[in-house]
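Notes on consecutive records. When two proteins share a document, each keeps its own sequence and its own token line. Never mix them. Below: protein one.
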Amino acid sequence: MIAPQIPKNEYQRQKAVEKYELLDTLPEDSFDNITRLISYICDTPIALITLLDNDRNFLKSHLGIPFNESPREISFCGHAINADEEIMIVEDSRKDERFHDNPLVSEHGAIFYAGVPLVNNEGYKLGTLCVYDHKPRKLNDKQIDAMINLSKQVMNLYEQKYNNVQLKKFQIHLEERNENLRKFASIVSHDLKSPISNIVMLTELLKEENQNNLSEESKQYIEYLRTSSLSLRDYVDGLLQFYKSDDTIRKKKENIDLSSFFLEIKELSAAGVTVDFEFPNKNAITIHSNKSALQQVFLNLITNAIKYNSKDHIKISISFEDTKSHYKFSVRDNGDGIPEKDKFKVFELFTTLGKEDRDGNMGSGIGLATVKRIINYLDGSITVDSQVNEGSIFHFTVCKD
């Protein structure tokens, strides 16, 4: 018997094997289906999918034998990964000096062997797709082609499982990161809101108590201080709301009567402002969705439509369509509009267009980012069509159950 040589790139090859995290894993149907198929095609009683580990040959799938690993030094697959050919075939191992006194031959009757190396994208040979028989034999061209093609399918499964594992790890990392950001935003918001409120209160008190002692310039400075503090407070509130939006979405869905829902939205968003609202002209429309999330979306869109509208007569129109897979909404206004070059920027966090609202305040760049975040979590999408001085239409969808 001749033990297989260790490849020159063994260190890198072993790292590649370990990368897929398949060693010592349980059997899986996706791999077992391939060994059953190749056993049928080649008409062999034994079919294996193997991974060459440091000192063993681990069998990810094994058809026709009861064990799931064997010593690497006696493995046929150890020789197969060193071969230059696409497939290594041993028609009668009893006549081959490498195997004639191998325990696999003498004790388990491994007479015939054919193995195709499993090669990853980096060129490392991880193991094999192989078949054994207890008698000498040959494979025809179609059987050889089938083994080579199915070995590529095995490698695709390896890559798919690796990508799934990496995706799951990334998802966990992202969830941890988002949770830390939410905690950070909550702590910062809490710690900032109190001093900001104190600044607002003290500036108002200072202005009131010294009304007759302040110059017009001083009064203007105090007003600047007050409006800046209020803007900072809104910014902090918006930041906290952005990172709390996930919690809003996680709440369970419920039946929502759109007629009463839009009346609530009107009362909440247009307090103290005269707005001509137009709602869907249909009776008894009921949808099943997350009411809190939808409220947050509509309040942001309608509040923006009011704030960034310099016209005397504000008009807002809401439309609705129920499709097989989604609820479709649109919110149209006759406001100041968005320049074409900025249409995609408005959904980015902290992005503002440098434009004051109707009260002279600058936006925080958080509201529409929150809207997009919520809609994405609801498996929907949002777009905007707009013309400067003509108005905007926000189209968005929400996935149905």
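Protein two starts on the next line and is unrelated to protein one.
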Amino acid sequence: MKKIKSFGISALRNEESFGFLKLVVAETDNLPSEETTPVGLTNAVAALETAYNQFDIALESAAANPDVATAAAADTARDQAWRGVNNYLTAMLAHPDEEKRTLARMFKDEFDKYGDPTNLSQTEESGVLHNLLQDTQSYASHLKEPIYLDAWLSDLNAKEEAFLEAVEARNRSEASRAARIGQVKETRTAAETTYRTLVDTVNALALLNGDADYADFIDHVNAMIDRQKQVIKTRATNHAKKKEDEKPGELS
């Protein structure tokens, strides 16, 4: 009589367990149709599908943190804004109007005083931009208006504020990472439990009613189990070899 082999699925890594369960869910199409399927088997299949979907959602939630990309994009945007103002002031130093050249020099000196912050760490850059914006915005409007500097400084300030908001969101997401990891473990355990229930159900039905209706499912799942066992065995061998290689050599 055919039966699904015993398998320590918990030895797999998260992604491996997910991939294995995904294949098992797909293989349930090889089980008898609903008209001839015992209620216990129908419930076991439905439970596995539900638990697998929850495991999938948890993995996606743990892996994805869009706030990291948002913060990185905001950092790039403020770098570009600083370069834009700095380049503009540099160009204005050659303006044909002497008054505008003088005003441009006054503000360019402020930028030069702090240097290029775009190659600093994100925290250091925020400190520099805070001081630079504070200094330049303290100048009277009539000194900025002739060279249309307000729009440039307002843009730089807006980009800096957007970055700070993005970092705050990123930090909140990182703080909740532990909870997301815990959810992955919880949903994985639930999915693997429903897998074992399905295996026990199929093996019991094959024993009671004969394995003809379950042969394809059993054979396919057993083939998948053999592949996963080989993965685990190879990993253990490689790990043991690595530990052996890391041992200090014997003194002669």
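For the record: The chain is about 75% helix and 0% strand.
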